[in-house]
Amino acid sequence: MKIVITKFLIYAFPALLFFSFSFCNPLLSLASEVYEQLVGVIDIRTTYSDGDFTAGQLVEMAKSRGIDVLVITDHDRMVLQYGLFPFRNILRLRVEKPSVLKKGAKDYLAMLDKVNKQSKNIIIVPGLESAPFYYWSGLPLPGKLTAHGWEKHLLVIGIEDIEKIEALPILHSNPGIGYIKHYLPFTLCIFSL
Q1: Is 50 within a domain?
Q2: Which residue range forms the structural domain that includes residue 148?
Q3: Is residue 161 part of a domain?
């Protein structure tokens, strides 16, 4: 007996199988009842770091535009530092701008929590924006030195523990002692092999 596969079977059978599964599956109908699609904006900053608006102003703008969720990601630390070799920590130029760790993580989270409680129908998710790495090229002369990779950032979203924010292993800040203590036994095991 020969089986003949036509174009109809190739295209129609998978579609028929999908639609019959999706209409008969009770989990899919349950998911549509449980979840609600929201409109959100991610990666916005307040005046706490380099933003132009306060969190309260952002909430008002979000309401007027029909936005349900704001993921506010102020900079954890905004520092550029250049030191002359071999005395990088003695002969250096450092520029630091307002950021969460400069002004205080406790105040930052308290400000976002206060605005979140005051805002009706807007969800505020706290976050941080971090520059994990950058490097310099050129000569330490006016107009001859360039920082590369500074605009490549990572977003840390949903972190609400002050101690964890302050312990993040970021550039020009703490060495992340909390993370080192956690991974130190594992690291020592690897180096002892």
Answers
A1: yes
A2: 7-192
A3: yes
At how many degrees (to 10) do helices 105-118 and 55-65 cross? 40
- Number of folded domains that form the chain: 1
181: which 2 tokens? 């203590």
In the block, tokens 């993040």 appear at 168
Contacts of 169 (CB under 8 A, 6+ apart): 175, 176, 179, 180
Residue 2 lies inside a defined structural domain of this protein: no
CA atoms within 13 A on the CB side of 161: 5
* Bond before 98 cis per omega within 30 degrees: no
**pLDDT for position 185:** 63
pLDDT at residue 65 above 70?
Answer: yes
- pTM of the predicted model over 0.85: no
Q: Higher confidence at residue 172 or residue 12?
A: 172
Structural contact between residues 76 and 165, judged by C-beta atoms closer than 8 angstroms: yes
Q: What is the mean pLDDT of residues 77-92?
A: 81
